[in-house]
UniProtKB/TrEMBL annotation:
It comes from the Bacteria. The lineage of its organism: Bacteria, Bacillati, Actinomycetota, Actinomycetes, Kitasatosporales. Residues 70-89, 333-448 are annotated as: Disordered. This is Mg-protoporphyrin IX chelatase. It comes from Streptomyces dangxiongensis. InterPro entries: AAA+_ATPase, BchD/ChlD_VWA, ChlI/MoxR_AAA_lid, Cob_chelat_sub_put, Mg-chelatase_DI-like, Mg_chelatse_chII-like_cat_dom, P-loop_NTPase, VWF_A. Residues 497-674 form the VWFA domain. Keywords: ATP-binding, Nucleotide-binding. Belongs to the Mg-chelatase subunits D/I family. Residues 346-360 have a biased composition (Acidic residues). GO terms for molecular function: ATP binding. Pfam families: AAA_lid_2, Mg_chelatase, VWA_2.
Length: 682
C-alpha cells in the first residue's frame, strides 16, 4: 500500500488545508471545491486528509458501513441488531472521470430480479464512501448526469437505485471534495452552489517557499515511509485537534449578532437562495470549534464568507471569482453591534484580520481564505484601459498593409436562442443537438452490447414470452434467459463544437461592426457554456490565419481572447477556411463523435495572392464534401454589394445572413437556419 504524503507536510496552501479540516470537523458544511492551476498540491492535500479522520465503527460484514450504534433500517444487508462493531480507518474513495452510472450508484442483477424476485445488489462507489471521503479529481470534466447523481446523494445522505420497479436505498453520507483546473472548463452555477466551500489555489511566487516544496517532495519520493514517520507527531496533533473540535462542536453557540452578520453579508453580495446563509453558519460554527471556542466571533463570520461565497456570487461565466474584501469588512462592521456576539458587542471589533487565534498550525482560522476581486468588467477582463484609435475608431482602407486597429470592445452579450446541428449524433452528453445517449426519452430497444444498463421491460417480456413452455415454466414468474434481455434505446442531447471563423481584416475593422460580431460570439459562448459545448475561434487577416482559441469549454479564456482580437490588413479568406478545416480534422481525431457547426463571419472579400476568391471557394467545398454544417454572416456594407458571402455560403453548403440581421436578439436564431439548408443539400 502506498504511503500518502503527510497532510501537515504540505507547504503553504493555508486556505485549502483550512477548508478541508473544517469539513473534517463538521461534514455538514457540505464539502470543498478546489480550483487552481495544475501542480498546486490539490490532489496531494485531499488524499492526505483521510489519515487525519477518526476511526470509523462499522457493523461487521456490512458492505454499506452501517454505524453499529444506529444501523440503517433500510440497509440492503440488514436489518442489523444494535451492538458493538469493529473499527476501521476512514476511507477515501476516488471517482474516476470516466466512471459509469452503475459504478457510481451500484447495480441490480436485473435477470435475478425478474426471474427470482431477488434484490441482488452490487454496491457502488457511493456505498464505499459512506462515512468517509468521496474525491472527484477534475470534477468539471465529469458527465452531467453523474454530477447530478453525486450531488443529489450528497444532499439527501442516501443513494437510490431504481430499475423497472425494483428499488434499493442505502445511506450515503460522505465528505465530497472536488478539484478542477478552470482552464479546462467551468461547472454550471447550480452545481457550484452545491459545494459548501471553495478555495482558489496557486503556486507560491516566493523562492524560499518553492525551495521547501521541492525539498520535501524529493525527500518523500526517496523514502515515503521514513518521511511520513518524521511527520507523525504533527499528524497526530492535528488528528487529536479534529477529534476535540468534533466533540466541542455541539456546544458552540451561534448568537443572533453573528446570524445577522451572516444574513447581511449574503444579502450584500446578492447570492441566490438561502444555501449560502446556512453554509456560512455551519462554517463559522466549525471555525469556532476548531479554535477551541464555544462562541462565534466576527472573525469566524469573515473567514466563513471568504470560503463559502466566492463561487456563489458569480452572476455569469464571465464574472471573475472572489470577493471584494473591503465591501465584506464594511458589511461586517456595519452589523457588528446588532445583537451582541459579533465582535465585542459595541461595533469596535471589525474582525478583519482573524487574529483571534494565535495557533500557527495548519489551517488556523486566521488563514485568510478567498481571493480579492479584481477590478473587472462584466466579462472578468480589464477592458477599461484599452487605448482607442486616434482617429476615433475609423478603419484603415482595405489593403492598407500590415497596419491594424486597437481591439474593439464587444457589445453586451445577450441570451441566445438554441442552435443545433441537424440529424442525430452520438457525441458527448450535452444540451444542444439530438443524439443517441444513455439518458433521455426511450425511443425503442436493442440487444445489449456489453453489460445491461437500461432495461426495456416490455421488450424483454415480449422476447421471453414465446419460449415459456419450452423452458418448462410452471410457476407465476417468467423464465428469463440472458438472450431475452433488451436494452432501452434512448434519445437525448449532445454537446457540439461551435467553430467561429472571423474575418479580422481591414475591411471588417469598423468598430460598430466588430463590436456587434464580438457581442454575438460572446453570447454564443455563454450559451455554449450552459449547453456543455466546445467553442473555437479562427481569425484571418494580413498574410494568413491563426487559431485564436483552440476548441475549449472555458468561456473565461474565450472571452479574454475575443476581447483582445485586433483587426487590419488584407483578407486571406482561403487561409482562414483551410485553417478551420485543419482544426476540425484534428478535433475529429480527438473526439470523432462530436459534431461541428462552423460560423463564418466575413464580407466575402478575398485579397492577396493569385485568384483569391477562387481559392476561397475551393477551400469552402471541403466543408461541403465532409457534410459539416455551416452558416455565413455577411458583413458586406455600402450601396454596391458584390454578394460574395452568399456565393461562399453556397460553396460551403450552408446559408448566408446579412450584417443587418446580426442583431443582439437574432444571431443565434440565424444560425439555426443551417438545419434546413443542410437537409436540402443532403
Amino acid at each position: 500500500m502506498t504511503t500518502p504524503f503527510p497532510f501537515t507536510a504540505v507547504v503553504g496552501q493555508d486556505d485549502l488545508r483550512l477548508a478541508l479540516l473544517l469539513n473534517a470537523v463538521s461534514p455538514a458544511v457540505g464539502g470543498v471545491l478546489v480550483r487552481g492551476e495544475k501542480g498546486t498540491a490539490k490532489s496531494t492535500a485531499v488524499r492526505a486528509l483521510s489519515a487525519l479522520l477518526p476511526e470509523v465503527a462499522v457493523v461487521p460484514g456490512c458492505r454499506f458501513s452501517c454505524d453499529p450504534a444506529a444501523p440503517d433500517p433500510s440497509c440492503p444487508d440488514g436489518p442489523h441488531e444494535a451492538g458493538p462493531g469493529t473499527g476501521r480507518p476512514a476511507r477515501m474513495v476516488e471517482l474516476p472521470v470516466g466512471a459509469s452510472e452503475d459504478r457510481l450508484v451500484g447495480a441490480l442483477d436485473i435477470e435475478r430480479a425478474l426471474a427470482e424476485g431477488v434484490k441482488a445488489f452490487e454496491p457502488g462507489l457511493l456505498a464505499d464512501a459512506h462515512r468517509g471521503i468521496l474525491y472527484v479529481d477534475e470534477v468539471n470534466l465529469l458527465h452531467d448526469h453523474l454530477v447530478d447523481l453525486l450531488l443529489d446523494a450528497a444532499a439527501m445522505g442516501a443513494s437510490y437505485v431504481e430499475r423497472e420497479g425494483v428499488s434499493v436505498r442505502h445511506a450515503a453520507r460522505f465528505l465530497l471534495v472536488g478539484t478542477m483546473n478552470p482552464e479546462e472548463g467551468e461547472l454550471r452555477p447550480q452545481l457550484l452552489d452545491r459545494f459548501g466551500l471553495t478555495v482558489e489555489v496557486a503556486a507560491s511566487r516566493e523562492p524560499e517557499q518553492r525551495v521547501e516544496v521541492v525539498r520535501r517532495r524529493l525527500a518523500y519520493d526517496d523514502d515515503p515511509a521514513g518521511f511520513a514517520t518524521r511527520w507523525a507527531g504533527e499528524e497526530a496533533a492535528v488528528r487529536q485537534r479534529v477529534v476535540a473540535a468534533r466533540e466541542l462542536l455541539p456546544q458552540v453557540q451561534l448568537g443572533d449578532g453573528a446570524l445577522r452578520q451572516i444574513a447581511a453579508t449574503c444579502a450584500a453580495f446578492e447570492v441566490d437562495g438561502m444555501r449560502a446563509d446556512i453554509v456560512m453558519a455551519r462554517t463559522a460554527t466549525a471555525l469556532a470549534a476548531w479554535a477551541g471556542r464555544t462562541d462565534v466571533l466576527a472573525e469566524d463570520v469573515r473567514q466563513a464568507a471568504l470560503l463559502a461565497l466566492p463561487h456563489r456570487r458569480r452572476r455569469n461565466p464571465f464574472d471573475a471569482p472572489g470577493l471584494d474584501e473591503d465591501k465584506l469588512d464594511e458589511t461586517l462592521e456595519q452589523f457588528a453591534g446588532d445583537g451582541g456576539d459579533g465582535g465585542d458587542g459595541n461595533g469596535e471589533d471589525d474582525g478583519d484580520d482573524g487574529d483571534g487565534d494565535d495557533d500557527p498550525g495548519p489551517g488556523g482560522p486566521g488563514g485568510g481564505g478567498g481571493q480579492p476581486e479584481p477590478d473587472a468588467g462584466p466579462r472578468g477582463g480589464d477592458t477599461a484601459a484599452r487605448p482607442e484609435a486616434a482617429d476615433g475608431g475609423e478603419p484603415q482602407p482595405s489593403g492598407a498593409g500590415p497596419g491594424e486597429q486597437s481591439p474593439a470592445r464587444a457589445a453586451e452579450p445577450f441570451r441566445a436562442r438554441v442552435l443545433s446541428v441537424p440529424g442525430i449524433g452520438e457525441g458527448a452528453a450535452g444540451r444542444r443537438s439530438r443524439a443517441r445517449t444513455e439518458h433521455g426519452r426511450t425511443t425503442g430497444s436493442r440487444r445489449p452490447r456489453g453489460a445491461l444498463t437500461k432495461l426495456h421491460l416490455a421488450a424483454t417480456v415480449q422476447a421471453a414470452a414465446p419460449h415459456q413452455r419450452a423452458r418448462g415454466r410452471s410457476g407465476p414468474g417468467l423464465v428469463i434467459r440472458r438472450d431475452d434481455l433488451r436494452q432501452a434505446a434512448r434519445e437525448g442531447r449532445e454537446g457540439n463544437l461551435v467553430l467561429f471563423v472571423v474575418d479580422a481584416s481591414g475591411s471588417m475593422a469598423a468598430r460598430q461592426r466588430m463590436s456587434a460580431v464580438k457581442g454575438a460570439v460572446l453570447s454564443l459562448l455563454l450559451d455554449a457554456y450552459q449547453r456543455r459545448d466546445k467553442v473555437g475561434l479562427v481569425t484571418f487577416r494580413g498574410s494568413g490565419a491563426e487559431v485564436a482559441l483552440p476548441p475549449t469549454s472555458s468561456v473565461d479564456a474565450a472571452a479574454v481572447r475575443l476581447e483582445s482580437l485586433p483587426t487590419g490588413g488584407r483578407t486571406p479568406l482561403a487561409a482562414g477556411l483551410l485553417k478551420a478545416h485543419e482544426v476540425l480534422r484534428v478535433e475529429r481525431l480527438r473526439d470523432a463523435a462530436r459534431r461541428a457547426l462552423v460560423v463564418v463571419v466575413t464580407d466575402g472579400r478575398a485579397t492577396g495572392g493569385t485568384e483569391p476568391v477562387a481559392l476561397a471557394e475551393r477551400a469552402a467545398r471541403l466543408f461541403a464534401a465532409d457534410g459539416i454544417a455551416s452558416v455565413v454572416v455577411d458583413c458586406e456594407s455600402g450601396p454596391v454589394r458584390l454578394g460574395l458571402a452568399g456565393r461562399l455560403a453556397g460553396e460551403l453548403g450552408g446559408t448566408a445572413v446579412t450584417l443587418e440581421e446580426l442583431r443582439a436578439d437574432s444571431i443565434a436564431g440565424l444560425v439555426r437556419d443551417v438545419q434546413g439548408t443542410t437537409r436540402r443539400a443532403a
